Amino acid sequence: LGAAHDLREVLLVINNYTGDRLNFGLALTRARALYPRISIDAIVVADDVSLLKSPTPSLVGARGLGGNILVCKLVGAYAETGASLAQVKRFGDAVVGSLASIGVGLEHCHVPGRKVEGSASDEGDYDCEVGMGLHNEPGVRKGNFENAEQLVGEMLGMILNSRGDGNGEEAFLRIGKSVDDSVLFLNNLGGMSQLEMGAILDETLLQLKAISIHPRRIYSSAYMTSLNAPGFSLSLLNLSHLRRSLSQDGDIDVLALLDAPTEATAWAGVRTSWPDGIREFEHEQAETESMLRSLHQTQSVEPSSKGGGGDAKNYWQEADISVNAVEAGIRAACVRVLEIEADLTAYDTVVGDGDCGETFAAGAKAVLKALDSGDLDIKSLSPSDLMRRLGEILEASMGGTIGALLAIFFTSMATAVPSKASDSWHEAPAHALAALSTHTPARPGDRTIVDALSPFCSSLADQSPAKSNWTGCTRRCGRQGRARRATKGMKARLGRAVYVGGDEGLPPDPGACGVAAVLDGLWAGMGSA
């Protein structure tokens, strides 16, 4: 972005998965901080209707499925017409609101290099799983279907009844005397043969025809795959609803946008014309590599405007905080995390995928390595630069949701630290937590790391930046183990623990335990320095 001097507007298209939201959110947060001249916005695609009528809906909301590609095609073509970022964003949101999808899997995908243990259907007497997500997430129903007619009928029924009771205008598509125009989008998840996809498409068209629905456009291909997963997703775009939603934006020819030519060879759609000339792939690759090198150099040398460089020492002194104490606290926090790695792994094996301990340990080791090598020289960094550098280290070393959450938190805190130490710098963590909340629905009580971060941020925000009160705050925040222990038995509303349910016998949330360990070590280390 920094090397693209003519770039003024950027739009992100994000599938509604926790990891996607957080990592794209981190990119958006960092880009806004580094390049304030560029306007950046995002569209969240949540087209999966399988969980809309769940008796216990998740805070995450509907997942993103293959309809994401249809959204990308439409907003990309609309942007090519010269529409502004605000117009494209509004159009994209309207497309998402007029889109409904449902996925099905006959089997899970197989990750290359991993041993195939057996068929998922071996675990029970069923042929396929309706409502399965792109990443093998559980569906809403496992069952046996005698033929494609039964399977397609159930999927179409879930789509058509997803917005109401299935009658009249309350249904997703109006049928009867006044039928809504629509687009049919069939996505192969990667492991279905062309013969099978052809049969599914024919059956879908037959059943739509039986209720007087004749799609204006029909697409069928492997648009968004899940490796070699033998499954597919079925999407309907309600063109009439989309036009009604855009009535104030003038006449937008959605079909023309779908038909517009594109250089994306994987788009198996209608072309009204082919672009002239031959693409020079080597030249394009060289330009891309040059942009990336330039961007990396810009980020490496760009100083913070908040007390970095020679002003760092003065900033710490004005804040009445010992740099040696800060380093001692960070080191102690890392050591404390490494001490409880096995506990975090044990907890996460019960409520997650078992990698929480390894993830936290990787971050702790990376920070210690940076301190030992001088790559993280606290004496030469202002608090803002320190937070930003910690965010970069954690982003590079910690994977998954935890890494993205912490990277967003530290990056946001770097932006929130005031230019003068005399200002309310102690409120920066609370501002960072508020910024984090825009990228995740997690709130205190949801059994996440927020249950450990929130007491720390609020306790610090309640204090004066004076040294005496800082010491008192460290004592209070050092006892945030209560918040960590309180997650024990909580009913999870986010993450993989959602599928485990609430149980008094469950361990505390491993992410909250990891953050509590960081705080325990931080305050113990600072207090002993």
TrEMBL record:
<dbReference type="InterPro" id="IPR036117">
    <property type="entry name" value="DhaL_dom_sf"/>
</dbReference>
<dbReference type="GO" id="GO:0005829">
    <property type="term" value="C:cytosol"/>
</dbReference>
<comment type="pathway">
    <text>Polyol metabolism; glycerol fermentation; glycerone phosphate from glycerol (oxidative route): step 2/2.</text>
</comment>
<dbReference type="InterPro" id="IPR004006">
    <property type="entry name" value="DhaK_dom"/>
</dbReference>
<dbReference type="GO" id="GO:0050354">
    <property type="term" value="F:triokinase activity"/>
</dbReference>
<keyword id="KW-0808">Transferase</keyword>
<dbReference type="InterPro" id="IPR004007">
    <property type="entry name" value="DhaL_dom"/>
</dbReference>
<dbReference type="GO" id="GO:0019588">
    <property type="term" value="P:anaerobic glycerol catabolic process"/>
</dbReference>
<feature type="domain" description="DhaK">
    <location>
        <begin position="1"/>
        <end position="267"/>
    </location>
</feature>
<dbReference type="Pfam" id="PF02733">
    <property type="entry name" value="Dak1"/>
</dbReference>
<keyword id="KW-0067">ATP-binding</keyword>
<dbReference type="InterPro" id="IPR050861">
    <property type="entry name" value="Dihydroxyacetone_Kinase"/>
</dbReference>
<comment type="similarity">
    <text>Belongs to the dihydroxyacetone kinase (DAK) family.</text>
</comment>
<keyword id="KW-0418">Kinase</keyword>
<keyword id="KW-0319">Glycerol metabolism</keyword>
<dbReference type="GO" id="GO:0005524">
    <property type="term" value="F:ATP binding"/>
</dbReference>
<dbReference type="GO" id="GO:0004371">
    <property type="term" value="F:glycerone kinase activity"/>
</dbReference>
<comment type="function">
    <text>Catalyzes both the phosphorylation of dihydroxyacetone and of glyceraldehyde.</text>
</comment>
<feature type="region of interest" description="Disordered">
    <location>
        <begin position="285"/>
        <end position="312"/>
    </location>
</feature>
<protein>
    <recommendedName>
        <fullName>Dihydroxyacetone kinase</fullName>
    </recommendedName>
</protein>
<feature type="domain" description="DhaL">
    <location>
        <begin position="324"/>
        <end position="524"/>
    </location>
</feature>
<keyword id="KW-0547">Nucleotide-binding</keyword>
<dbReference type="Pfam" id="PF02734">
    <property type="entry name" value="Dak2"/>
</dbReference>
